[in-house]
Design brief:
The protein is α/β, with parallel strands linked by helices. It has 16 helices and 19 strands. The protein folds into three domains: 158 residues, FAD/NAD(P)-binding domain (3-Layer(bba) Sandwich); 127 residues, no CATH class; 81 residues, Alpha-Beta Plaits (2-Layer Sandwich). This is NAD(P)/FAD-dependent oxidoreductase.
Protein backbone atom coordinates (compact mmCIF):
# COMPACT_ATOMS: atom_id res chain seq x y z
CA UNK A 1 0.00 0.00 0.00
CA UNK A 2 1.04 3.58 -0.60
CA UNK A 3 0.52 5.50 2.62
CA UNK A 4 0.99 9.20 3.35
CA UNK A 5 1.67 10.21 6.94
CA UNK A 6 0.78 13.85 7.61
CA UNK A 7 2.92 15.40 10.33
CA UNK A 8 6.52 14.92 11.36
CA UNK A 9 6.13 15.02 15.13
CA UNK A 10 6.48 11.93 17.31
CA UNK A 11 3.12 10.51 16.22
CA UNK A 12 3.96 10.86 12.54
CA UNK A 13 7.54 9.63 12.85
CA UNK A 14 6.45 6.60 14.88
CA UNK A 15 3.64 5.77 12.44
CA UNK A 16 5.91 6.05 9.40
CA UNK A 17 8.60 3.88 11.00
CA UNK A 18 6.16 1.12 11.93
CA UNK A 19 4.35 1.12 8.59
CA UNK A 20 7.58 1.10 6.58
CA UNK A 21 8.86 -1.83 8.65
CA UNK A 22 5.61 -3.62 7.74
CA UNK A 23 6.50 -3.29 4.06
CA UNK A 24 4.37 -0.32 3.00
CA UNK A 25 5.49 2.46 0.66
CA UNK A 26 5.43 5.47 2.99
CA UNK A 27 5.64 9.21 2.32
CA UNK A 28 5.84 11.54 5.32
CA UNK A 29 4.75 15.16 4.77
CA UNK A 30 5.79 17.84 7.27
CA UNK A 31 4.91 21.54 7.01
CA UNK A 32 8.01 22.73 8.88
CA UNK A 33 11.52 22.73 7.48
CA UNK A 34 12.61 20.20 10.09
CA UNK A 35 11.17 17.10 11.68
CA UNK A 36 10.23 16.60 15.30
CA UNK A 37 7.45 19.06 16.01
CA UNK A 38 7.16 19.75 19.72
CA UNK A 39 9.66 16.98 20.48
CA UNK A 40 12.45 18.79 18.66
CA UNK A 41 15.23 20.50 20.59
CA UNK A 42 15.71 24.28 20.86
CA UNK A 43 19.25 25.71 20.73
CA UNK A 44 20.71 29.16 21.33
CA UNK A 45 24.16 30.42 22.35
CA UNK A 46 25.57 26.97 23.01
CA UNK A 47 22.61 25.90 25.16
CA UNK A 48 20.07 23.24 24.15
CA UNK A 49 16.65 22.63 25.69
CA UNK A 50 13.90 20.06 25.15
CA UNK A 51 11.14 21.66 23.10
CA UNK A 52 8.34 20.19 25.20
CA UNK A 53 8.56 16.79 26.91
CA UNK A 54 11.74 16.31 28.93
CA UNK A 55 10.97 12.82 30.25
CA UNK A 56 8.56 9.96 29.68
CA UNK A 57 6.37 7.64 31.70
CA UNK A 58 5.77 4.01 30.70
CA UNK A 59 9.08 3.57 28.85
CA UNK A 60 7.81 0.30 27.37
CA UNK A 61 5.96 2.37 24.75
CA UNK A 62 9.22 3.73 23.34
CA UNK A 63 10.99 0.41 23.66
CA UNK A 64 8.20 -1.28 21.71
CA UNK A 65 8.36 1.37 18.98
CA UNK A 66 12.08 0.86 18.39
CA UNK A 67 11.97 -2.91 18.70
CA UNK A 68 9.06 -3.23 16.25
CA UNK A 69 10.66 -0.92 13.67
CA UNK A 70 14.32 -1.93 13.90
CA UNK A 71 17.07 -2.00 16.52
CA UNK A 72 16.18 -1.74 20.24
CA UNK A 73 16.15 1.72 21.82
CA UNK A 74 19.04 0.96 24.18
CA UNK A 75 21.21 -0.10 21.24
CA UNK A 76 20.42 3.18 19.49
CA UNK A 77 21.20 5.47 22.42
CA UNK A 78 24.27 3.48 23.45
CA UNK A 79 23.06 2.70 26.96
CA UNK A 80 20.07 2.64 29.25
CA UNK A 81 17.31 5.17 29.79
CA UNK A 82 18.00 7.36 32.83
CA UNK A 83 15.49 6.94 35.70
CA UNK A 84 14.50 10.06 37.62
CA UNK A 85 14.81 9.50 41.36
CA UNK A 86 12.53 12.50 41.94
CA UNK A 87 9.85 13.00 39.27
CA UNK A 88 8.80 16.42 40.51
CA UNK A 89 9.12 18.72 43.50
CA UNK A 90 6.01 20.68 44.46
CA UNK A 91 6.27 23.94 46.42
CA UNK A 92 3.17 25.47 47.96
CA UNK A 93 2.20 28.97 49.00
CA UNK A 94 2.56 28.09 52.71
CA UNK A 95 6.29 27.39 51.99
CA UNK A 96 5.88 23.64 52.49
CA UNK A 97 7.02 21.26 49.76
CA UNK A 98 7.12 17.62 48.70
CA UNK A 99 9.47 15.73 46.41
CA UNK A 100 7.57 12.98 44.60
CA UNK A 101 9.61 9.84 43.85
CA UNK A 102 8.55 7.42 41.15
CA UNK A 103 8.33 3.65 40.91
CA UNK A 104 7.72 2.99 44.61
CA UNK A 105 4.57 3.07 46.72
CA UNK A 106 6.57 2.95 49.96
CA UNK A 107 8.82 5.83 48.88
CA UNK A 108 5.79 7.96 48.06
CA UNK A 109 4.25 7.29 51.49
CA UNK A 110 7.47 8.41 53.13
CA UNK A 111 7.73 11.51 50.94
CA UNK A 112 4.17 12.71 51.48
CA UNK A 113 4.33 12.07 55.23
CA UNK A 114 6.74 15.02 55.31
CA UNK A 115 3.65 17.19 54.79
CA UNK A 116 2.03 15.80 57.93
CA UNK A 117 1.11 12.54 59.64
CA UNK A 118 -1.21 10.41 57.53
CA UNK A 119 -0.78 12.31 54.28
CA UNK A 120 1.28 9.49 52.79
CA UNK A 121 -1.49 6.96 53.35
CA UNK A 122 -4.07 9.42 52.00
CA UNK A 123 -1.97 9.83 48.86
CA UNK A 124 -1.51 6.14 48.10
CA UNK A 125 -5.18 5.36 48.84
CA UNK A 126 -6.05 7.82 46.09
CA UNK A 127 -3.46 6.42 43.70
CA UNK A 128 -4.63 2.85 44.41
CA UNK A 129 -8.08 3.66 43.01
CA UNK A 130 -6.52 3.98 39.57
CA UNK A 131 -5.19 0.41 39.36
CA UNK A 132 -8.45 -0.95 37.86
CA UNK A 133 -8.75 2.17 35.69
CA UNK A 134 -5.35 1.53 34.13
CA UNK A 135 -6.23 -2.12 33.60
CA UNK A 136 -9.28 -1.12 31.54
CA UNK A 137 -7.47 1.62 29.62
CA UNK A 138 -4.45 -0.56 28.88
CA UNK A 139 -6.43 -3.55 27.61
CA UNK A 140 -9.18 -1.74 25.71
CA UNK A 141 -7.85 1.70 24.75
CA UNK A 142 -4.07 2.06 24.91
CA UNK A 143 -2.89 -1.30 23.57
CA UNK A 144 -5.82 -2.30 21.34
CA UNK A 145 -7.58 -0.41 18.52
CA UNK A 146 -11.01 0.77 19.58
CA UNK A 147 -14.19 1.77 17.77
CA UNK A 148 -16.42 4.51 19.16
CA UNK A 149 -19.46 2.67 17.84
CA UNK A 150 -18.53 -0.60 19.52
CA UNK A 151 -16.61 0.05 22.73
CA UNK A 152 -15.95 -2.80 25.16
CA UNK A 153 -18.45 -2.70 28.02
CA UNK A 154 -15.90 -1.83 30.72
CA UNK A 155 -14.40 0.99 28.63
CA UNK A 156 -17.82 2.39 27.75
CA UNK A 157 -18.71 2.35 31.44
CA UNK A 158 -15.51 4.20 32.33
CA UNK A 159 -16.11 6.85 29.69
CA UNK A 160 -19.69 7.33 30.92
CA UNK A 161 -18.68 8.11 34.51
CA UNK A 162 -19.89 11.57 35.49
CA UNK A 163 -17.31 12.23 38.19
CA UNK A 164 -14.78 14.93 37.34
CA UNK A 165 -11.17 15.00 38.49
CA UNK A 166 -11.99 18.14 40.49
CA UNK A 167 -14.67 16.28 42.47
CA UNK A 168 -12.51 13.19 42.92
CA UNK A 169 -9.68 15.23 44.43
CA UNK A 170 -12.00 17.13 46.76
CA UNK A 171 -13.50 13.82 47.88
CA UNK A 172 -10.19 12.02 48.44
CA UNK A 173 -8.12 14.77 50.06
CA UNK A 174 -8.73 16.98 53.05
CA UNK A 175 -5.32 18.51 52.43
CA UNK A 176 -5.54 20.78 49.37
CA UNK A 177 -1.82 20.34 48.73
CA UNK A 178 -2.33 16.70 47.77
CA UNK A 179 -5.03 17.75 45.32
CA UNK A 180 -2.66 20.24 43.72
CA UNK A 181 -0.08 17.51 43.16
CA UNK A 182 -2.62 14.99 41.85
CA UNK A 183 -4.19 17.47 39.44
CA UNK A 184 -0.98 19.09 38.31
CA UNK A 185 -0.46 17.20 35.03
CA UNK A 186 -3.89 18.09 33.69
CA UNK A 187 -3.56 21.73 34.75
CA UNK A 188 -0.08 21.95 33.20
CA UNK A 189 -1.55 20.79 29.89
CA UNK A 190 -4.10 23.62 29.94
CA UNK A 191 -7.21 21.89 31.31
CA UNK A 192 -9.77 23.00 33.89
CA UNK A 193 -10.13 20.14 36.39
CA UNK A 194 -13.89 20.75 36.54
CA UNK A 195 -14.07 19.60 32.91
CA UNK A 196 -11.65 16.66 33.17
CA UNK A 197 -13.04 13.13 33.75
CA UNK A 198 -11.79 11.56 36.98
CA UNK A 199 -10.18 8.65 35.11
CA UNK A 200 -7.62 11.01 33.55
CA UNK A 201 -5.92 11.13 36.95
CA UNK A 202 -4.48 7.69 36.14
CA UNK A 203 -1.19 9.48 35.46
CA UNK A 204 -0.43 9.41 39.21
CA UNK A 205 -0.66 5.61 39.10
CA UNK A 206 1.67 5.44 36.10
CA UNK A 207 4.23 7.58 37.93
CA UNK A 208 4.08 5.37 40.99
CA UNK A 209 4.29 2.10 39.05
CA UNK A 210 6.70 2.90 36.24
CA UNK A 211 8.54 6.05 37.33
CA UNK A 212 9.81 8.68 34.89
CA UNK A 213 12.74 8.31 32.51
CA UNK A 214 15.01 10.50 30.42
CA UNK A 215 16.86 9.94 27.17
CA UNK A 216 20.58 10.67 27.72
CA UNK A 217 21.30 13.90 25.88
CA UNK A 218 17.68 15.02 25.79
CA UNK A 219 14.36 13.88 24.34
CA UNK A 220 15.22 15.59 21.07
CA UNK A 221 17.52 12.65 20.33
CA UNK A 222 14.40 10.63 19.56
CA UNK A 223 13.80 12.83 16.53
CA UNK A 224 17.26 12.15 15.11
CA UNK A 225 17.00 8.42 15.79
CA UNK A 226 13.59 8.12 14.17
CA UNK A 227 14.65 10.23 11.19
CA UNK A 228 17.56 7.84 10.64
CA UNK A 229 15.17 4.93 10.90
CA UNK A 230 12.91 6.40 8.24
CA UNK A 231 15.88 6.78 5.94
CA UNK A 232 16.90 3.17 6.57
CA UNK A 233 13.36 1.98 5.83
CA UNK A 234 13.14 3.95 2.59
CA UNK A 235 10.50 6.46 3.71
CA UNK A 236 10.18 9.51 1.46
CA UNK A 237 10.25 12.62 3.66
CA UNK A 238 8.87 15.91 2.36
CA UNK A 239 9.66 18.78 4.74
CA UNK A 240 8.52 22.35 4.18
CA UNK A 241 5.39 20.95 2.56
CA UNK A 242 1.94 22.00 3.76
CA UNK A 243 -0.93 19.54 3.41
CA UNK A 244 -3.96 21.42 2.19
CA UNK A 245 -6.62 18.72 2.47
CA UNK A 246 -7.61 15.13 1.79
CA UNK A 247 -9.13 14.20 -1.56
CA UNK A 248 -12.10 11.92 -0.90
CA UNK A 249 -13.98 10.00 -3.57
CA UNK A 250 -17.04 7.85 -2.83
CA UNK A 251 -16.34 8.05 0.91
CA UNK A 252 -12.75 6.79 0.63
CA UNK A 253 -9.52 8.75 0.64
CA UNK A 254 -7.93 8.90 -2.81
CA UNK A 255 -5.18 11.48 -2.50
CA UNK A 256 -3.49 14.06 -0.29
CA UNK A 257 -3.48 17.61 -1.60
CA UNK A 258 -0.19 19.47 -1.01
CA UNK A 259 1.20 22.79 -2.27
CA UNK A 260 2.21 21.57 -5.71
CA UNK A 261 -0.38 18.92 -6.50
CA UNK A 262 -1.89 15.70 -5.22
CA UNK A 263 -0.27 12.49 -3.96
CA UNK A 264 -2.34 9.42 -4.78
CA UNK A 265 -2.74 7.14 -1.77
CA UNK A 266 -4.25 3.91 -0.53
CA UNK A 267 -4.34 5.17 3.06
CA UNK A 268 -3.49 8.27 5.11
CA UNK A 269 -2.35 8.70 8.70
CA UNK A 270 -3.24 12.13 10.10
CA UNK A 271 -0.72 12.91 12.85
CA UNK A 272 -1.61 16.62 13.14
CA UNK A 273 -4.59 18.48 14.55
CA UNK A 274 -7.41 17.24 12.28
CA UNK A 275 -9.00 20.71 12.38
CA UNK A 276 -6.29 21.77 9.90
CA UNK A 277 -7.79 19.55 7.20
CA UNK A 278 -11.18 20.68 5.87
CA UNK A 279 -12.24 17.10 5.16
CA UNK A 280 -11.95 16.28 8.88
CA UNK A 281 -12.62 19.65 10.49
CA UNK A 282 -16.37 19.19 10.46
CA UNK A 283 -16.02 15.80 12.17
CA UNK A 284 -14.19 17.30 15.17
CA UNK A 285 -15.95 20.65 15.29
CA UNK A 286 -17.16 19.90 18.84
CA UNK A 287 -13.57 19.80 20.14
CA UNK A 288 -10.95 22.45 20.79
CA UNK A 289 -7.17 22.26 21.20
CA UNK A 290 -5.55 22.58 24.62
CA UNK A 291 -3.29 25.61 24.50
CA UNK A 292 0.44 25.32 25.37
CA UNK A 293 1.94 27.33 28.27
CA UNK A 294 4.15 30.39 28.11
CA UNK A 295 7.70 29.07 27.68
CA UNK A 296 11.06 30.62 28.48
CA UNK A 297 14.25 28.69 27.71
CA UNK A 298 17.11 30.06 29.84
CA UNK A 299 20.87 29.73 29.51
CA UNK A 300 22.40 30.54 32.89
CA UNK A 301 25.94 31.05 34.18
CA UNK A 302 27.30 30.93 37.70
CA UNK A 303 25.93 29.16 40.74
CA UNK A 304 22.22 28.33 40.59
CA UNK A 305 19.99 26.37 42.98
CA UNK A 306 20.39 22.59 42.77
CA UNK A 307 16.93 21.49 41.64
CA UNK A 308 15.47 18.15 40.56
CA UNK A 309 14.26 17.53 37.01
CA UNK A 310 11.01 19.41 37.57
CA UNK A 311 9.92 21.93 40.19
CA UNK A 312 6.30 23.11 40.33
CA UNK A 313 5.52 26.38 42.08
CA UNK A 314 1.83 26.26 42.96
CA UNK A 315 0.55 29.83 42.82
CA UNK A 316 -1.03 32.13 40.27
CA UNK A 317 0.72 32.05 37.92
CA UNK A 318 1.83 28.45 38.28
CA UNK A 319 5.49 28.18 37.21
CA UNK A 320 7.24 24.95 36.29
CA UNK A 321 11.05 24.77 36.20
CA UNK A 322 12.63 22.01 34.12
CA UNK A 323 16.37 21.48 34.48
CA UNK A 324 17.13 18.88 31.83
CA UNK A 325 18.84 20.93 29.12
CA UNK A 326 22.51 20.86 28.13
CA UNK A 327 24.91 23.77 28.57
CA UNK A 328 28.53 24.73 27.92
CA UNK A 329 31.02 24.37 30.77
CA UNK A 330 30.06 26.61 33.68
CA UNK A 331 26.48 26.98 32.44
CA UNK A 332 23.06 25.57 33.31
CA UNK A 333 20.02 25.18 31.08
CA UNK A 334 16.53 25.66 32.51
CA UNK A 335 13.11 25.85 30.87
CA UNK A 336 10.24 27.72 32.53
CA UNK A 337 6.56 27.07 31.80
CA UNK A 338 3.95 29.55 32.98
CA UNK A 339 0.19 29.06 33.45
CA UNK A 340 -2.34 31.54 34.80
CA UNK A 341 -2.25 35.31 35.27
CA UNK A 342 1.21 36.15 34.04
CA UNK A 343 1.17 39.95 33.97
CA UNK A 344 4.93 40.37 34.40
CA UNK A 345 8.15 38.86 33.10
CA UNK A 346 8.22 35.22 34.16
CA UNK A 347 11.67 35.73 35.76
CA UNK A 348 10.24 38.47 37.98
CA UNK A 349 7.46 36.10 39.01
CA UNK A 350 10.04 33.41 39.69
CA UNK A 351 12.08 35.78 41.86
CA UNK A 352 9.09 36.27 44.15
CA UNK A 353 9.46 32.56 44.97
CA UNK A 354 13.03 33.25 46.16
CA UNK A 355 14.58 31.81 42.99
CA UNK A 356 16.25 34.81 41.41
CA UNK A 357 18.45 34.12 38.39
CA UNK A 358 17.77 37.36 36.51
CA UNK A 359 21.42 38.46 36.61
CA UNK A 360 22.69 35.08 35.40
CA UNK A 361 20.86 34.84 32.07
CA UNK A 362 23.17 34.81 29.05
CA UNK A 363 20.84 33.13 26.57
CA UNK A 364 17.08 33.24 26.41
CA UNK A 365 14.33 32.07 24.04
CA UNK A 366 10.80 33.24 24.87
CA UNK A 367 7.82 31.64 23.17
CA UNK A 368 4.17 32.56 23.63
CA UNK A 369 1.39 29.97 23.27
CA UNK A 370 0.49 31.45 19.91
CA UNK A 371 4.09 31.29 18.69
CA UNK A 372 4.35 27.67 19.80
CA UNK A 373 1.16 26.68 17.98
CA UNK A 374 2.34 28.46 14.83
CA UNK A 375 5.79 26.90 15.07
CA UNK A 376 4.44 23.39 15.65
CA UNK A 377 1.41 23.82 13.36
CA UNK A 378 -0.86 22.80 16.21
CA UNK A 379 -0.87 22.12 19.94
CA UNK A 380 1.05 19.13 21.36
CA UNK A 381 -1.27 19.28 24.37
CA UNK A 382 -3.95 17.57 22.28
CA UNK A 383 -7.68 18.04 22.75
CA UNK A 384 -9.06 20.32 25.46
CA UNK A 385 -11.23 18.50 28.00
CA UNK A 386 -14.74 19.99 27.92
CA UNK A 387 -16.45 17.28 29.93
CA UNK A 388 -16.74 13.50 29.80
CA UNK A 389 -18.12 13.57 26.24
CA UNK A 390 -14.89 14.96 24.82
CA UNK A 391 -13.34 11.50 24.59
CA UNK A 392 -16.15 10.42 22.26
CA UNK A 393 -15.86 13.42 19.95
CA UNK A 394 -12.22 13.12 18.99
CA UNK A 395 -10.76 10.85 16.35
CA UNK A 396 -8.41 7.90 16.47
CA UNK A 397 -7.22 5.46 15.59
CA UNK A 398 -9.89 5.34 12.83
CA UNK A 399 -11.91 8.20 11.33
CA UNK A 400 -15.26 8.38 9.50
CA UNK A 401 -13.41 8.48 6.15
CA UNK A 402 -12.42 5.06 4.85
CA UNK A 403 -8.65 4.70 4.61
CA UNK A 404 -7.92 7.63 6.94
CA UNK A 405 -6.40 6.95 10.35
CA UNK A 406 -5.36 9.28 13.17
CA UNK A 407 -2.31 9.29 15.46
CA UNK A 408 -0.64 11.79 17.76
CA UNK A 409 -1.76 13.85 20.76
CA UNK A 410 -5.14 14.61 19.18
CA UNK A 411 -5.87 10.90 18.76
CA UNK A 412 -4.60 9.53 22.09
CA UNK A 413 -5.97 9.31 25.66
CA UNK A 414 -3.73 12.23 26.50
CA UNK A 415 -0.66 14.09 25.41
CA UNK A 416 2.82 12.91 26.35
CA UNK A 417 5.39 10.59 24.84
CA UNK A 418 3.94 7.17 25.79
CA UNK A 419 0.39 7.85 24.63
CA UNK A 420 1.50 9.48 21.38
CA UNK A 421 3.98 6.68 20.62
CA UNK A 422 1.33 4.07 21.33
CA UNK A 423 -1.21 5.77 19.05
CA UNK A 424 1.09 4.89 16.15
CA UNK A 425 1.07 1.25 17.23
CA UNK A 426 -2.73 1.19 17.04
CA UNK A 427 -2.69 2.60 13.51
CA UNK A 428 -0.10 0.01 12.44
CA UNK A 429 -2.23 -2.77 13.88
CA UNK A 430 -5.29 -1.62 11.95
CA UNK A 431 -3.50 -1.19 8.62
CA UNK A 432 -1.55 -4.41 8.99
CA UNK A 433 1.35 -5.68 6.88
CA UNK A 434 1.69 -4.90 3.19
Amino acid sequence: MRIVVIGGGLGGLASAARLAKNGHQVVLVEASATLGGALGAVSEGGYTWDGSASSTLVPAALRDLFRKSGRPLEAEIGGELEPLEIISEHRFEDRSSVRVPGGSRAAQIEAFDELGAGTGEAWVRHVDTYAPVWDVLRRSYVEAPWDQQDLPKDLDSLFSTRETLHKRLRRDFRDDRLGLVAGYRAVAEGHDLRNVPAWVGVTTYLEQCFGAWRIPGGMGRLVDLLAERLETRGVTVLTGTVTRDLVVRDGKVAAVSIDNGDIDVDAVVVAIDPRRLPALARVVERTMPAIPPVVAHLGLVGEVPDLPAEVVLHADPMIVIRTGGTAPEGGTAWTLHGRGKLAEDILDALARHKIDVREQVVARVDLSPRELVEQWHGSPCGVLWQGRGTVRYRLGPTTPISGVYAAGAHAAPGSGVPFVAQSAALVAQLIGPA
